[in-house]
Amino acid sequence: MSLGCKPDCALCVWRWREEKLLASKAAPSPVNYQISFSQGDFTRLTACGPGHLTFWSLDGRFYDRLTHESGRFLLRPTASIESATENGSQQQKGQGKVISTTHWGNLLVWGEQGTIELEITRKDG
């Protein structure tokens, strides 16, 4: 994958060995600290940065379409997400959780609806 800079900030997913672009779409945020594939599902990516966590999916018959959904903080203050990782596949019930870090040091566990299911805090914080 690659991420362009301004003006379009396009996220591109490549089949590197064949030098073929599979899909491309403008990223909703121009600043991303990290973009990574899911450990259990190559069609899912997670991007994070100041004030956002974005869930990406490769869709279509030939994985030629990128779609995204922004994480929703709901009643919590918007956080600068420093890093995130997804483990497992969303198709397996109860799997595919995204865990992210915040700028204040807590861990957030994100659910299937793009909302925070659990916040893990430090003992003294």
- Spatial separation of the terminal alpha carbons: 37 Å
pLDDT averaged residue by residue: 84
The helix/strand class is mainly beta
What's the count of strands? 11
Radius of gyration: 15 Å
The spatial strand order of the largest sheet comes to: 4-5-6-7
Give the helix/strand layout.
Blueprint: E1 2-3, E2 10-15, E3 20-26, E4 34-37, E5 44-49, E6 52-59, E7 65-70, E8 81-87, E9 97-102, E10 107-110, E11 116-120
Antiparallel strand pairs: 1-2, 2-3, 4-5, 5-6, 6-7, 8-9, 9-10, 10-11
Keywords summarizing the entry:
four-stranded antiparallel sheet; mainly beta; 125 residues
Structure description:
By secondary structure, the protein is mainly beta. It has one domain. Helix content is 0%, strand content 49%. It has no helices and eleven strands. The protein has a four-stranded antiparallel β-sheet, with no helix packed on it. The chain has a four-stranded antiparallel β-sheet with strand order 8-9-10-11, with no helix packed on it. The termini are far apart. The model has no long low-confidence stretch (mean pLDDT 84).
Outline:
The protein is mainly beta and 125 residues long.
